[in-house]
Write a structure and sequence with these properties.
Length: 70
């Protein structure tokens, strides 16, 4: 993995300014946040990344995929 970010990850923001994904993340356990944070870091520093960590949703929108216990 490079020592510099290849891309910057941004969370979806509603027109009202709310970021539902960030709000959802805050409700997870520290272990779950670590798993997701590690996957996001993999995308930022290892771009381009494909499945199983990342996939295109079209229109320059990408999904970071993680595996949690629940």
């Amino acid at each position: 993995m490079d020592s510099e970010k290849q891309i910057t990850v941004r969370f979806y923001r509603q027109p009202s300014g709310n970021e539902p994904v960030r709000d959802w993340l805050k409700g997870l356990t520290p272990k779950e946040r670590l798993i997701l944070g590690t996957d996001i870091k993999t995308v930022e520093f290892g771009w381009p990344v494909g499945l199983p960590v990342c996939r295109s949703l079209g229109d320059e929108l990408w999904e970071v995929r993680s595996n949690l216990d629940k």
